[in-house]
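PROTEIN DESIGN WORKSHEET
SECTION A - STRUCTURE
LENGTH: 203
TOKENS:
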């Protein structure tokens, strides 16, 4: 496969595999696994098997992942973390505690370089799915959630490279903080980020 080829060519220690979300919908395998895990939290979702097989480094949930419901994505998140895959969400807030529900970022060491990967999901998620599917969570705008994290990483000298992986579409440079597609706007407004990996609008 492409991944095996790249890891074999440049070395696995020089490759980061990031997933910007929307894996829990779209085909019968996802629907079947969603029902399986929804009825038995100890069951293993096919996405966990895929992430383990691919040695996925980090994942951000997309709006269609939250659409599967708490009973589905929370067991998946736990198992991903147990398998060593970081589940990131700098703008996904646990409303009870007021802190991030998932780790806001993780620092990876690749080829002698410290890479800080910050994750964020689409802040428009609550507009598209019913509240019972994300009860207890809040979705903050990406820019104000991420900028202080970037500033802290840079101030501490904790990373050589800062990557934002976000479940958002390309959009325009003028997009607002709550637009579903705002990657270009983030690229222009975020300070201290070297790379943005984005996915949502199928472009």
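SECTION B - SEQUENCE
RESIDUE ASSIGNMENT:
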């Amino acid at each position: 496969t492409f991944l095996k080829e790249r890891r074999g060519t440049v070395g696995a220690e020089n490759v980061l595999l990031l997933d910007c979300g929307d894996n829990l919908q779209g085909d019968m395998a996802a629907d079947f696994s969603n029902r399986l895990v929804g009825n038995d939290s100890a069951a293993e979702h096919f996405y966990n098997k895929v992430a383990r097989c691919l040695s996925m480094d980090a994942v951000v949930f997309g709006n269609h992942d939250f659409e599967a419901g708490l009973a589905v994505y929370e067991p998946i998140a736990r198992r991903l973390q147990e398998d060593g895959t970081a589940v990131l969400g700098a703008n996904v807030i646990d409303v009870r505690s007021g802190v991030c529900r998932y780790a806001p970022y993780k620092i990876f060491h690749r080829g002698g370089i410290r890479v800080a990967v910050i994750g964020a999901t689409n802040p428009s998620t609550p507009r598209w799915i019913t509240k019972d599917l994300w009860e207890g969570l809040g979705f903050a705008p990406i820019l104000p959630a991420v900028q202080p994290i970037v500033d802290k990483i840079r101030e501490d000298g904790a990373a050589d490279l800062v990557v934002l992986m976000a479940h958002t579409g390309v959009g325009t440079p003028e997009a607002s903080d709550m637009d579903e597609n705002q990657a270009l706007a983030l690229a222009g407004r975020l300070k201290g980020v070297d790379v943005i990996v984005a996915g949502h609008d199928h472009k």
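SECTION C - NOTES
Residues 142-156 form the longest helix (15 residues).
The mean pLDDT is 95.
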